[in-house]
Amino acid sequence: MKFLLVFDFDHTIVDENSDTWIVKCAPEKKLPNGLRKSYRPGHWTEYMGRVFVYLGDNGITEDEMKRTMTTIPFTAGMVDLLGFIGENKEFFDCIIVSDSNTVFIDWILKAADFHKVFDEVFTNPAAFSSTGYLTVQNFHAHHCAKCPKNLCKRRVLKEFLDKQLERGVSYTQIVYIGDGGNDLCPVMFLKKDDIAMPRRGYTLEKKISQLAQNLSPVECSVLVWSSAAEIMSHLKVLIKE
């Protein structure tokens, strides 16, 4: 019996938002006001599509983008944590569910040699067009009112678990590590033996404590972290048990 580790990516594995980090490639490292103001809540992927068109129009190449993205810093303690998980894969299956995109995550994980730590990555599909422009699509369509239009993380997690069950794989416990508002939906899907690990001071932690104040707490246990060293200590305890 294994543990399933579910990671968000931005502000969880890396200490920044990969989608805003790419703006360092733009002329003068900023976007025009009109483009910045074109974002509509829940429609982030379409907005990033426009950002990538702007970068393409300004002649920013795939190589330049890759060089910029691979300088993004990992969160404190994360390099050690991912190294530890990689060395203990007999105990852990490990997936990423992220609102970033396949190109960015692939670049960052491969540059740091962490791509083998993760069994699957669920994120918005991205690719370079024949003209050299980066394009991105919504991960899926769904009917969850709580989540952004392109991605319901609860649905991704549920479908992954169902698929694993069909293969005869079930998990002792799910550990969900994230920071954002869109991580609340999958956390509310977790059962009492599971653990949610929200990053201290970020939206997910605030939303979980609001629920507790409103006397409708999440069912799973909650362990807040600031450094990934705290996550690693907890995982060490789990595999000793």
From TrEMBL:
InterPro entries assigned to the protein according to its UniProt record, in alphabetical order: HAD-like_sf (IPR036412), HAD_hydro_PyrdxlP_Pase-like (IPR006384), HAD_sf (IPR023214), Pase_PHOSPHO-typ (IPR016965)
NCBIfam families: DKMTPPase-SF, HAD-SF-IB
Molecular-function annotations in GO: metal ion binding; phosphatase activity
Protein name in UniProt: PHOP2 phosphatase
Superkingdom as given in the UniProt entry: Eukaryota
Record keywords, A-Z: Hydrolase, Magnesium, Metal-binding
Protein's organism: Calonectris borealis (Cory's shearwater)
Entry annotated with the keyword Hydrolase: yes
Residues that coordinate or bind Mg(2+): 8, 10, 179
Names of the cofactor(s): Mg(2+)
Active site: 8, 10
Binding-site residues, substrate: 19, 99
